[in-house]
Amino acid sequence: MCGIFAISGERETAGNIVLKGLKKLEYRGYDSWGIAIRDAGKISIEKQIGKISGVKKDFGKSTESMGHTRWATHGGVTNENAHPHKFGKITLVHNGIFENFLEVKKEIGAEKFKSETDTEVIAALLDELLETGLEPDEAIREAAKKIVGRFAILVMVEGIPGLFAARRGSPLILGRGKTETFIASDIPAFLEYTNTVNYLDDNEMVYISGGTAIFSNLKTGDPITKRDITVNWKIEEAEKGEFEHFMIKEIFDQKDTIARAINHDDELLKKAVKLLQESNGAYFIACGTAHKVTSAAEYFFAEISGRKINVVPAGEMPSFEKFVNEETALIAISQSGETADVLEILERGKKVGAKILAITNVETSSVARIADVHLPIQAGVEKAVASTKAATAQMALCFLLAYADAENIRPGSINRGREILRSTASSINDLLNPRYAEYVEAIAEKIVDRRNMFIIGRGALYPMALESAIKIQEVSYIHAQGFAAGELKHGPIALIEKRVPCLVLGDDSETISNAMELKARGARIIGIAPTRADVFDEWLRVPDCNGAQAIASIIPVQLLAYHLAILKGLDPDMPRNLAKSVTVK
Ligand code: M6R
Fold this sequence. Notes:
Glutamine Phosphoribosylpyrophosphate, subunit 1, domain 1, Rossmann fold, 8-stranded antiparallel beta sheet, globular, 7-stranded antiparallel beta sheet, alpha/beta, binds 5-amino-5-deoxy-1-O-phosphono-D-mannitol
């Protein structure tokens, strides 16, 4: 949610480097963008509404620059509300939410502000603190005491070279060069220059100037020493390559990612299930697509190891936190590992002694770092807003974990789980070919003019019906709704009209009966199943996956959603109103 990126160094084209890097962070927010440069001591700002991807501009000479791509929270999408914000001597970009900003704005004088943002209030607060004679780092520490909420900020101060950054809750990573330092919300922004990084943790700040970075505690000012970490990210992984969009590239990446997700040694899996087995009450915590994955995982555990795990969307967990204590296991699933709703539950859970198992795609993310046991899904960078390869990799890993959980009762279970998943991965590899994609595209052409779509499934395919709806809604803007197949006749069937497309996940006899009920009311039935049933008007074949059906069944829907978006002339990578990593509550 919002991408921020800065460089301080000896290159003379800092502004252009920031422009290029911000384009790689655009998946984090794309309402507007802005860049500040410092040249010969003078700070100037350029900001505009709209996407940064098409921007061609030469920022000329500058050795320091910082920029921002925005996902609007406070105030509409306007030039005034775009970052950076300047107030007095302070120029600032911000990712996060300053919850009590109105109070502080009033104290400073609401008439002094040009924008509606909470960010400008941080700039004003810092400027006011500087006026009292504080040094910039002291002013940032004082301001942090006043700010309620999560933030990552980058600050330039007039007359003082270098940049200040501070973090509480929103990610910031430093890229270390010999004579230059980068700082960004995510690594791809600077990966072409360096793969040596330092992670800024919560309640830490840093001052960067050229190749120097001075870290300190945001509460006490005490110096902090950081370890250099080498990341093994590949630049190509974060690029589209031969594909037109990241979404389709990432759908095709599933040829490899499912097999990679289960590439963990048994010891780590056993450690993860031990945490579960020693608990008294376990909760899956996640949001959006990851939440739908946890709902599928609930079925996997119930069916494979006989364990009941509670599934709660992270944003709803506050009502159940009274049940969380030192005996509880919290299992967090998050692609980014930075989702604010998830993190907050984990932070509070940790305080009462709950044990945390995290499944993320970003090994160094906040969720991964707070966990007692972390299982990376190893799917490689996922950039499209719509989660595809991360979701199937998360499901594969949960499926394997359920088998690992059953090892005590049925020795050899882990191997059995691996076998099923290997065969699933290889069938998916066969499925994902251009001919299959063209066939899905042809179905998309037939239904693209429809305003509503419904999806049904049973068992672990029920959460996949819900996930299918998310995929279709978010990239094609067609109203789509998923239901448990058996629930239709209890109400939703009233919505069925002639020619409304209904995706039917599965070919078991009960689901097929439900499909017939839909067809009898005029629906066009698109079956997604290993076998073709007579009731299907169209059939998207998926392999028979021996209990892991949910993993394969979502793939044709991902393709369908992608082609619907393309046929409607939409950008599937950057759907309206959305952003990739949701670091605000
Ligand atoms: O990074 P996370 O997995 O924690 O993100 C959670 C959701 O915001 C995310 O799954 C979202 O629903 C997807 N981008 C939708 O495709």
